[in-house]
Amino acid sequence: MVESHQLMLGLHPKSFNLLEEKSMLEYLLSGCLVLSIAISSNAENLAERLGYASDARILIVHADDVGMCHAANVATIEAFKHGMIKTGSIMVPCPWFPEIAGYAREHPEADLGLHLTLTSEWKYYRWRSVSPVTEVPGLIDEEGYLWRRVEDVVKHATPREVETELRAQIERALAFGIQPTHLDTHMGTIYAKPEFFQIYYQLGMEYSLPVMVINPTPDVVAMYRAAGYPLTDDFVEQMRQSPMPKLDMLVTGVQGGDDLESRRRAYDDVFQRLRPGVTQLIVHLGTDAPELQAITGNWEARYDDYRIFTDSETKQKLDELGIQLIGWR
Prior knowledge:
The chain is an alpha/beta fold. Helix content is about 40%, strand content about 15%. The chain has 13 helices and nine strands. It has helices at about 25-30, 45-50, 70-80, 95-105, 150-155, 160-175, 195-205, 220-225, 235-240, 260-275, 290-295, 300-310, 310-320, and strands at about 1-10, 35-40, 55-65, 85-90, 110-115, 185, 250, 275-285, 325. Strands 1, 2, 3, 4, 5, 6, 7, 8 and 9 form a nine-stranded mixed beta sheet that branches. Helix 6 packs parallel to helix 7. The two termini are about 30 Å apart.
């Protein structure tokens, strides 16, 4: 018996402007529309496997896009000090990667994974592959940068090129002194093609790093297939049998209106709805610096995330609800 709940959070036409030039398919592939909750009632959830009670509500508040720019680094480092953000993942190809790598070297206890990156989505702020362009031509657009859209990566890149680039990103992080705690994927690109996911999974096994996956209950599989993810039966079975830890729930892209208080209420609603097990909540942090304002039209949402998750009132709400915070480490 599987219970599931799926909630569209604050979805309206303006929501699709947040990622600027992204298509609907890419928006779905990046997981930005749906709050999905699925728990198998006849099997141990991840919280139980970690030693918590069967009804414990465990939350990983995860900062994405670390290293993307200076404003993201400043916000994430400051958020770590407040205790609600315990983990995040680094975009190795981005210009401000060396800054967060320096932080990671100085703070080896920091719970930082790698946000494996195959796209460069912003209009003017772009980045190239870590691998030489001649080795991964299918990942490179006509301007010499990584493709903006997930569909273009799927259309042009070969599995060999994807493996070459992902391995190069992991090796670059290691060379800079980062000891990553996990792997995940920027814009969901790794999940857009079964061959890409297989590479991601095998790299996790090779480097002894957990990869971000969700427990593939029947309802979760049906939901993601409906959203356009190419989940084959072989892939689903592989995930079921995998020794990798699997999240019980994943919450991405909370939509909360155009102001801080509306966004705060949207997160409060997420907290109230959490079920037993381990949930990962993905947030994107940034300051209100001119740099971030020039990069993206959704800078205010990132600044709101930063303010919400450095606010003692948010922590108090989590404590009152009995929600326990952990990281990937």
